[in-house]
# Entry
Amino acid sequence: MNSPAKLVIASRESALAMWQAKHIQARLQALYPQCDVSILGMTTMGDQILDSPLSRIGGKGLFVKELENALADGRADLAVHSMKDVPMHLPEGFTLVATGEREDPRDAFVSNDYARLEDLPAGSVVGTSSLRRQSQLQARFPTLKIESLRGNLQTRLRKLDEGQYAAIILAAAGLIRLELGHRIRQFISPQESIPAVGQGALGIEINAARTDLKTILAPLNHPDTELCVLAERGFSRALAGSCTVPLGAYATKQNDTITMQGFVASVDGQQMLKETVTGSAAEAEKLGQQLALQLVARGADKILALLDGIK
Ligand SMILES: NCc1[nH]cc(CCC(=O)O)c1CC(=O)O
# Structure
């Protein structure tokens, strides 16, 4: 492989995004010691609008649009995203070239006063703006009060520490990457809080016209993670998923077999449909669609139609 002379990574400016960009920068630098690998930090709409839930202001695209503009006009060669924040359909002209190895995929319970979710007294206020986390929490603990919590990881932890919430739920991956793993009081199992599609995995996006970059960036891909995320995104895509719908899916791969759990729920968790599929990793995306169909067969489409009515 000929070393490229220069690579520019577009990244959001939050501490987690910068950690991820620097991680990819270090990997590229190790692969191509002669290459000048730099990071272009950018603020996105998703970072600026902090007072309304993402589900109301337009969803995941808000976090990637500015980075895509930089890819389109050549200011950057690649963008590093949390896969969780990447929309199910990329705009024309962009493509994902690599999926980075997954960090811990679980949701984490963070609190200053309580060691476990089960210890929260009835009526306790829990902070999360994720409909996926809200529905799964409410299904198990209907008396908890869920309140909106936006902002980057540091902001969310600060709001917890200021006493606005008895506890908050965050992705373990972000906390671990930022060396804040000690804030985690309890890891919530992927069965009890099915993670977001792509949670914990990194995605590398490029301008689709830049075919020269595909082989250069191929070593960043972690094939097992890629297949699991492909299956999860197949599920979400089949259900027209975004963060406006309480759904989640989590796939694991053993040998050539993928096992995946997925759910769709009403926001209050009163209606909750879960299914599991197992199948060949070679047909990862189809497996995701199959999981979606199994849920639709049990009435997931009615739950989704109901949610459509609310929006
Ligand atoms: N929606 C924001 C976001 N995007 C990715 C992560 C965490 C890291 C990851 O899942 O890769 C987070 C924070 C959170 O959900 O707590």
Summary: The chain has eleven helices and 13 strands. The first strand starts at residue 6 and ends at 12. The first helix runs from residue 15 to 31.
